[in-house]
Structures are given as structure tokens and as C-alpha cells.
Amino acid sequence: NNTSVTSMEDLSGNGYTATLNNFSLDGSSSAWVSPAGLDFDGGSDYVELPQGLTDSFNDFTFEAWVYWKGGKHWQRIFDFGSDYNENMFFTPRASGDVIRFAITTSGALSEQRVSSTDTMPKNQWVHLALVLDGDSGHIYQDGVKIASNSILLNPSALALSASNWLGKSHYEADLNFFGQMKDVRIWNTARTASEIQTNMNSSLQGTETGLYAFYPFASNSPSDTVLTDQTGNGRDGMLKNFALDGSSSNWVSDYPAAIASWPNCSPYQTEITKPSAGVISFSNPSLHVEAKVTSQ
What we know:
By secondary structure, the protein is mainly beta. Helix content is 2%, strand content 38%. It contains one helix and 20 strands. The strands form three sheets. Strands 3, 5, 10, 11, 12, 14, 15, 18, 19 and 20 form a ten-stranded antiparallel sheet that branches. The two termini are 16 Å apart.
């Protein structure tokens, strides 16, 4: 949490501390950076991913960290397809106020669906995963399976997916996504519950088996309009209609809120407000901090 730190602590307790070498530790490069995300204003913001992105898939996994701010039904986390007659989508609020995935090759009346029984949490980061595994579909929230159903269609059953979007629906009447996203992972394999749980809080290299596209949402510049695919396969996305100015409709950074405790003392809970420079440091070496990343 301190930009002048020159070591990386091994949190396993085994003492394998790493040392930073030759970093300037000043500015936006060769320095510590905050985890990034992208804020969608619920108006016209969306991200356009490449055509045909998942057209060859039989099994499929979509993962993302999502901070939904609420709003009307049928907003999209993603919507991949050619139009509303042939598409698959993932929404934080379907009819009945449930999380839903649906896929169809002949319109809404023929949709195959998997829906949760609970509502999507608002104003907090939630890890969501959608898995198509053979003839079944599953939704996971924070690593826990919350819904399953028979899904006989797979992405390869769709015609050429000319319009693959994050945050936008193929139905013109649906509102765009209102909230934030980060760390979108698209796999051409069916990830297991164990794999999702083990890796959802971990950084990826981009070379993992089955990882087809990986978007950490890390911007090199506030004016970036490219969502870079970190697999090296060039499946970059393009930001559409983002203002890229201010705290909404823009790239965002995360800052920690902390719960601190001392041995033989009752836990003390406090929220730490983001400082102007985005740096939080603690001078007491005996202080134990458990940090949860939240958006400010």
C-alpha cells in the first residue's frame, strides 16, 4: 500500500520475500499500480468484443467481477450473437429479479435458461461465473453454485456472432449495464467449481489452458479506448461511448477498506477513506490488516 515499498511479502508465512529491482516507483509506469476496472454509466456505454468470439465453443465459461448499481430489468453483463433471435446473454436482473443466462437460436420463446433463486447484490463487488458443460448450465456467485439447469444449445449452435458486447443488449428497449466490471475471463472449457474457487481471487498469466480471452481491465492511459486481451491472441475489445472523464463512464481504480486487529484485543473495524494520492501506509509493524478491495 506504500508506493516506496521495494519488496513483496510472501503471505504464505514461509518467508520467501521478493525484492523489486530497478523500478522507478514514481509515476504510472515502473511502479505499483492499483487494480483497475471500468465504470458503465447505464446510458450508452458498452464494450465491443471481436466478431465470432465464441462461435467454435462447445463448452464455455465466462467469469467476471461485477459491481452492479441496480436499475431496471434486462441489463446485460454480456450479450453475444447476431441479433435477439440468435444470441446468448447474462443479466443481473431478469423477470422475477433473478440472475439469468439464456441462449436461443429462434427468439425469446425458445430460450434455454438457467436462473438463480436469489437477487443480484447491489453496490458491492461480486464474482460471477457462467459455465456451459455438455448439456448443462451453471451459475456461480463468489465461487458457490447458485443455479443449474439443462442447456442443450452451445455457443457453436449460434450463427456468426457479429455483435459480442459487454454491457449492452441486442434488444434496443433494454437499458445498458449500470455499474462496474473487471477481470473478465472467457474460456473454451467448462471450469469446475474447484477451479473457479481457487483462481477467482488470483491473477492469471494469460497462458492458462483453455483461456481464450482475458481482460483484466488495466488501462495504461486514462484516454485508452482499447480493452486489451492479455492472452496475447489479439482479441481486444473496443470501448464505445465512454466519456473517459470523471468518476463515471471511465476507467476506475480500487482502494482498500481495512479491518485491523491486535493480539489479545477485540477486533476493531474501521473504514479507511481513499487519500488524494491513492496511498495508504501503516507505520506500526505489529499491526495486522485484512484488506477488502472496494471501489471509492
